[in-house]
Amino acid sequence: MASKIWVRAITAAAAVGLLIPASVFGQGRSGTTPPPTTGGGTTGGTGSTGATTGRTPLPSTTTTPPTNTPAVLSIPQPIFISGRVMLEDGTAPTDSVVIETVCNGRSHGEGYTDARGYFSVELGGRNSVMPDASEFGSSGGMNAPGMTGGNSTSGPFGGSGSAERRYMGCDVQAKLGGYRSQTVPLAGRRPMDNPDIGTILLHRTGPAEEGKTISAVSLAAPKDARKAYEKGMDAIKKKKFDDAQKSFEKAVEVYPKFATVWYELGILQAGQGKMDMARKYWDTAVECDPKFVKPYLQISILELQSQKWKGLADVTDKLVKLDPFDYPQAFFFNSVANFNLQNMDAAEKSALAAERLDTRHALPKVSQILGMILTVKKDYLGAAERFKAYLKFAPEAADAAKVRVQLAEVEKITAASAAAKEQ
To answer: Is 16 among the domain residues?
Structure first.
């Protein structure tokens, strides 16, 4: 009975933060817009009458300093990161692994792991990895992280960028031949932040994996269609969304199998709240290129919102078969679907996969649904462990009080069972 009561709580909360907001139009589409930094408040400026307050500054009453006063140089503080690289099976790589930053498509080696997979590096430090051929552009210059050209002054080695903006558009990942890596975003990272970025998993690549984040069918688009697509993406960057839609429509008129454009048309419709039209476009993208994974994830969100559990199970089954590594949320959605369909073994299998891939606990609700599944399966000790994990990862969650009740219930059952055995 208790498990049925919990169903509504988990399904409603599962969608929090996963809906497609109308504000999508205000977000960068090129991958360079950083997430909000933690802390929230503004930083007050030091100094006196020249501080920016939003009002017209008062005339200065201080004596004007001599023009030959030497300028104060602002020396960027170093940013350190640490963590561990592991293979998917939980073992450390047998070889040393390069830790690299990737900024706007350009990679730069920062350091190496030790024999157990641990690393601790200073980003952009003097002891970074000797660059290989992939770090040199066509002009012969090295592609340092955050650098867009030889005259850039806003990247990690520039002098004018703030600490929070220094690694805008940058991720950190591990580099080992034959494997692909999880990525950790660096945007907004500051010198005094906790350096520990957690565990980075490596996944062995193989011929069985067919899912692509870039549509192979779209790469065959003719020149006129590609030009219209690029014009549409440029319009999105300028927030000219009507112009973007016209360009995208022209692109698919020229090349109807342009899956990437159908996907972008769906995003535009979703941003306007036209979810039925968005779904139509995403379904078309899948028809054009069944191995293009991005539309599947968007469709799964719509199925979750509508509580269409069979549809959610089906679409996430396809997604995790195409790409069993990059989308832990797809495994989570699949678990929610199977839980509501009363397929507890399938729900547990998917939740465990999500738990394994979510090394930084970005999806704390995975722990909650695992607790619920284990409760149904009468594994009360395991359920209590997962409920405690959820409260650890999300102590201020809106449903934390409900989870504490769930935890108390399974602990009460465990205590009663233990007492019965002693008699």
So the answer is: no
